[in-house]
Amino acid sequence: MKGVAVVDHPLVQHKLTLMRRKDTSIKSFRQLLKEIGGLLCYEVTRDLPLETVEIETPMQPMSAPQLAGKKLVFAPVLRSGMGMLDGMLELAPAARVAHIGLYREPATLEVVEYYFRSPLDLEDRPVIVIDPMLATGNTAIAAVDRLKEAGARDIRMACLLAAPEGISKFQGHHPGVRIWTAAVDQRLDDHGYILPGLGDAGDRMYGTR
Fold first, then answer.
1. For the chain, which residues make up each domain, given as ranges?
2. Model confidence over 90-128: pLDDT tens digits?
3. How far apart are CA 119 and CA 146, in angstroms?
4. What CATH number does domain 4-46+73-206 carry, 3.40.640.10, 3.20.20.70, 1.10.1040.50, 3.40.50.2020?
């Protein structure tokens, strides 16, 4: 799909299979989500700009690359997005973090915002939205809408699983935002869950169902 990068690295695919199993423990699910978060971050940040600086090694001076511009921002969608955040922060520990509190109203599947907090200078920073499931697309659309209102211009989307319906709807609203995911599954069921999927990521991570 145009604008969608499926991260097919063997480690990502293996860990995703373990997460899909219904008998995977809460502890293992949480650890695997963190690990995949780090692996996805590696791919999402592959094209970050570099600049050349002069340094001294223990042996001699040299010109060497380092990240250019301001540090990036991770924007997890609460609550399940937090499960991928720690893995990403291990890879980019100097990153800023924005928190976006959203939930789907069960009857209508409409998105309700209950919290938003971000760095003030989003317009100068790459922003990576983190949400394990891109299902109906409503939550991801609302998250990007809110970040754009706050000034963000360079926005990327990282998710564990995506449904074709969610991708289509999301790209209809935000065609310039690229998506990175570990898999694009078959479809949504009547309740807006991804099939075959892995269930509700938040409930499986926190043991709330």
1. 4-46+73-206
2. 999 999 999 999 887 777 767 889 999 999 899 999 999
3. 13
4. 3.40.50.2020
Q: Which of 146, 76, 158, 71 is nearest to 112 (CA)?
A: 146
The pTM of the full predicted model, rounded to 2 decimals, is 0.92
- Please choose, from the candidates 16, 65, 58, the residue with its C-alpha nearest in 3D space to the C-alpha of residue 36: 16
